[in-house]
Amino acid sequence: MSTLSTEDKHIILDTIRDIPDFPKKGIIFKDITTLLNNPKGLKTLMNHLEERYKEYDLDYIAGIDARGFIFGSILADRLGVGFVPVRKKGKLPYTTVAEKYSLEYGFDEVEVHIDAFEGKKGARVLLIDDLIATGGTAKAASNLINKVEANCVECCFIAELTFLNGKESIDSPVYSVLEF
Ligand code: AMP
């Protein structure tokens, strides 16, 4: 299994920007646009993810709306597997399966197309997003994958806010490239 060298970790870490009080006061937003526009940082990250996941015998990568689409699509292409978008409610055009999750105030919902994994029971799926905070979004997304009879083999995040213990609520194994 590929491990990230301290040097490569710092190359990626140095490209992620903290934006205090966004989108509201008290939140430190981890901005990955500065990773995306940095060719060395992005290549270092994607090389690491490709090395790690090439041994997983994956059938699909599922990416969470919206930043998970970026990393997920690059990785899917590198591994030669399909990409499946997990979208916020109301965005997908065909018949969907949905899963609700609670937010600080109220609920949100994520959806996939009912045939996203082409009816392949037990298809091996890696779920990816840029960041795990409380874990609510990823838990709902991984439940959704299992609901359509695919198999969420791991959830991968570029960054994890460890003090929120988000990964404890997720049934699948969790891998985070960077921990904050
Ligand atoms: P959660 O469901 O609480 O784990 O929140 C994860 C989702 O919200 C991910 O799609 C992240 O992109 C986004 N998110 C939550 N907190 C932050 C943060 N501090 N910086 C950047 N993105 C965040």
| Parts with pLDDT < 50 across at least 5 consecutive residues | none
Strand order of the largest sheet: 5-6-4-3-7-8-9
Secondary structure: helix percent: 25-40%
Largest sheet, described in full?
7 strands, mixed
User: Helix/strand/pairing class, anyone?
Assistant: alpha/beta
Arithmetic mean of pLDDT: 96
**Extended strand count:** 9
The top level CATH class name of the domain at 57-179:
Alpha Beta
**What ligands does this structure carry?**
adenosine monophosphate
Determine the strand fraction and express it as a percent band: 25-35%
CATH-defined architecture of the domain at 57-179: 3-Layer(aba) Sandwich
Number of helices: 5
**What is CATH's topology name of the domain at 57-179?**
Rossmann fold
Gross morphology: globular
Q: Give helix and strand order, one letter per element, not per position.
A: HEEHHEHEEEEHEE
Q: Which radius of gyration do the C-alpha atoms yield?
A: 16 Å
Distance between the termini: 22 Å
Structure characteristics:
9 strands, globular, single chain, alpha/beta, two-stranded antiparallel ribbon, binds adenosine monophosphate, seven-stranded mixed β-sheet, Rossmann fold, 180 residues
What does this structure look like?
With 180 residues, the protein is α/β, with parallel strands linked by helices. The chain has a domain at 57-179: Rossmann fold (3-Layer(aba) Sandwich), CATH 3.40.50.2020. Helices cover 29% and strands 33% of the residues. It is built from 5 helices and 9 strands; from the N terminus they run αββααβαββββαββ. The strands form 2 sheets. Strands 5-6-4-3-7-8-9 form a 7-stranded mixed sheet, sandwiched between helices. A two-stranded antiparallel sheet has the order 1-2. α1 packs across α3 (39-53) and α3 (39-53) crosses α4. The mean pLDDT is 96. Bound molecules: adenosine monophosphate (AMP).
